[in-house]
Amino acid sequence: xPAPGPRGEEGGFLRSETGVRLLSALVxxxxxxxxxxxxxxxxxxxxxxxxxxxxxxxxxxxxxERREPIWAAMFMGLIALATSVMIAAxxxxxxxxxxxxxxxxxxxxxxxxxxxxxxxxxxxxxLATAPSIVREHPALGLTGLLWIFAVxxxxxxxxxxxxxxxxxxxxxxxISPGKTWSGFFGGLVVGTLAGALVVAAGEAxxxxxxxxxxxxxxxxAVASVIGQAGDLAESKLKRHFxxxxxxRLIPGHGGVLDRIDAFVAVCAFVLLSLGIATLAGGxxxx
Length: 286
Hints:
Layout: H1 17-38, H2 40-62, H3 67-86, H4 90-107, H5 111-136, H6 141-166, E1 170-172, E2 176-180, H7 181-204, H8 213-240, H9 256-285
Helix pairs in contact: 1-2, 2-3, 2-5, 3-4, 3-5, 4-5, 5-6, 5-9, 6-7, 6-8, 6-9, 7-8, 8-9
């Protein structure tokens, strides 16, 4: 009988830690891209499910005393807000955006729990609604959502491999000891390039670019940096509460929170930019 292979490699590549991680990533990427292509309810429901799982993980990490009332407010708020976005009812969305955080404040127990829960609610609301808002936006659409994916994924993958290959000084050793400055700059370069390539491809296929190339490259680079800051923020959260992974929901990757930290940060940046552009446009025509 042949001797067993190295630990973690028995049973072939797909059963190794690397294989499981890769397979999980491919499934998640396929689902994200597929629902982005379909748009509408497919996009909205996919990200609502992800946000619901992330909300449970947030409460598992922060451990509020009055968990069930907070969970009820988060869950109902996510459904109400995501539905309002999917049916294009902004007035209802604004109402829910006030009502459910108010419920957390009233029933959340200790102020420490209320504040952490409000922050968690903001994170999962962005996750549940931003992809649909971007996908259905007349100036962004599918290309806009693919741009977010490209920046986040390009930055993440390049930062990981560049950091491993080059090493060097640590980026934030007290928060995430594995991250290096070489990884940061590698992620910045590749993330910016990936985002720019998506914009160029969209333009070649008939998408009308809303900004000049200089502005797009600058915004893409800023988004890459913000995504890496979001990754560090989630690492800081886990260190604060002394947990390694938010859950074991995704084989080889941990929980949903472990995978969407940079994505939520970039989505928040996009929503803020859209809000500023809308206000500026209103002021210009007022």
